[in-house]
């Protein structure tokens, strides 16, 4: 094959206009890695944050954005076992996904079942790994617990609803419109709160008989800190995975102590390989049986062609989507 591929980078920080096409050398599969011919990749909020200049790639990661892909294995590096050239896979990346080819450690691969398209598969690695690590590894969610998921209609929220219900949790979500709440309810959420029209804290108290929720999955950050602390039950946990509502806020430490609350901040992208491999292994264990048994709704809201990447970012920025936006390569 020709040793040159098409890739996209961010030529500065800003809006979708900073996305720039480049010709790059096709990477080689180093020891323990595979080379994937990319068929599709998912857009994530982390991609947008990187584009805006507030979420740089970790040291050693590619300057090409993109955190999840699906495609076929083109080459195996030394020491790779359990995979072969031609296998259909999805992969979790620290970067490099906005390209025709990408190399990745074999521990970060997901097998793609025959009846799942590569477009659908591209919607799974980042969001499912994020949800599994934060709901279960960090948040210790289990049957009988209650969980509040902010932004329930997005890619992470959509996955979190389904996985939380699969273990027998009570799921409450927030969203900005009745249409988005209806979508969340269709995925199995027990209750939805329109944060633009309703008093979120009052609704949570009513829905939990005044007890509060055991776990909060929060993408908002500072804007919701006070609300979240008040909404948690005694011994509750809050896992913060995003800062859409700012990074700095005052915290009532007295309430924190009185309720024995744990606030956990996590990111996935910059974790060491061993930690990511553990997360991917547990994600494979939890997600893939549901995929194979068609018990997991993989909602690809809209697809774009590779040459339409700028338009895909514009659409993402509009905030109208529910589920995932996928780019076909």
Automatic annotation (TrEMBL):
<dbReference type="GO" id="GO:0070402">
    <property type="term" value="F:NADPH binding"/>
</dbReference>
<dbReference type="Pfam" id="PF00107">
    <property type="entry name" value="ADH_zinc_N"/>
</dbReference>
<dbReference type="InterPro" id="IPR014189">
    <property type="entry name" value="Quinone_OxRdtase_PIG3"/>
</dbReference>
<feature type="domain" description="Enoyl reductase (ER)">
    <location>
        <begin position="14"/>
        <end position="327"/>
    </location>
</feature>
<dbReference type="InterPro" id="IPR002364">
    <property type="entry name" value="Quin_OxRdtase/zeta-crystal_CS"/>
</dbReference>
<dbReference type="GO" id="GO:0016651">
    <property type="term" value="F:oxidoreductase activity, acting on NAD(P)H"/>
</dbReference>
<keyword id="KW-0560">Oxidoreductase</keyword>
<protein>
    <submittedName>
        <fullName>NAD(P)H quinone oxidoreductase</fullName>
    </submittedName>
</protein>
<dbReference type="InterPro" id="IPR013149">
    <property type="entry name" value="ADH-like_C"/>
</dbReference>
<dbReference type="Pfam" id="PF08240">
    <property type="entry name" value="ADH_N"/>
</dbReference>
<keyword id="KW-0521">NADP</keyword>
<dbReference type="InterPro" id="IPR036291">
    <property type="entry name" value="NAD(P)-bd_dom_sf"/>
</dbReference>
<dbReference type="InterPro" id="IPR013154">
    <property type="entry name" value="ADH-like_N"/>
</dbReference>
<dbReference type="InterPro" id="IPR020843">
    <property type="entry name" value="ER"/>
</dbReference>
<dbReference type="InterPro" id="IPR011032">
    <property type="entry name" value="GroES-like_sf"/>
</dbReference>
<dbReference type="GO" id="GO:0008270">
    <property type="term" value="F:zinc ion binding"/>
</dbReference>
């Amino acid at each position: 094959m020709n040793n040159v591929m098409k890739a996209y980078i961010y030529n500065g920080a800003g809006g979708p206009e900073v996305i720039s096409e480049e010709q790059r050398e096709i990477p080689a599969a180093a020891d323990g890695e595979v080379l994937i011919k990319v068929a599709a990749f998912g857009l994530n909020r982390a991609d947008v944050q990187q584009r805006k200049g507030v979420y740089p790639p970790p040291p050693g990661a590619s300057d090409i954005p993109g955190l999840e892909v699906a495609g076929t294995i083109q080459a195996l590096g030394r020491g790779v076992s359990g995979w072969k050239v031609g296998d259909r896979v999805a992969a979790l990346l620290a970067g490099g996904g906005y390209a025709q080819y990408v190399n990745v450690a074999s521990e970060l691969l997901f097998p793609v079942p025959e009846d799942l398209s590569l477009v659908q598969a591209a919607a799974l690695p980042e969001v499912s790994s994020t949800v599994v690590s934060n709901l279960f590894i960090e948040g210790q969610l289990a049957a009988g617990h209650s969980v509040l998921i902010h932004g329930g209609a997005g890619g992470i929220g959509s996955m979190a609803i389904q996985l939380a219900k699969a273990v027998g949790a009570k799921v409450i979500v927030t969203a900005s419109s009745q249409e988005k709440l209806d979508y969340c309810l269709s995925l199995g959420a027990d209750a939805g709160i329109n944060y633009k029209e309703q008093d979120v804290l009052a609704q949570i108290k009513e829905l939990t008989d005044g007890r509060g929720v055991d776990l909060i999955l929060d993408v908002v950050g500072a804007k919701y800190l006070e609300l979240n602390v008040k909404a948690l039950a005694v011994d509750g946990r809050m896992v913060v995975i995003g800062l859409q509502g700012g990074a700095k806020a005052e915290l009532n430490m007295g309430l924190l102590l009185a309720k024995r609350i744990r606030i956990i901040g996590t990111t996935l992208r910059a974790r060491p390989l061993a930690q990511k491999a553990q997360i991917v292994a547990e994600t494979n264990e939890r997600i893939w049986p549901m995929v194979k048994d068609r018990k997991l709704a993989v909602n690809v809201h809209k697809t774009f062609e590779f040459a339409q990447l700028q338009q895909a970012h514009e659409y993402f920025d509009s905030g109208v989507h529910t589920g995932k936006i996928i780019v076909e390569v």
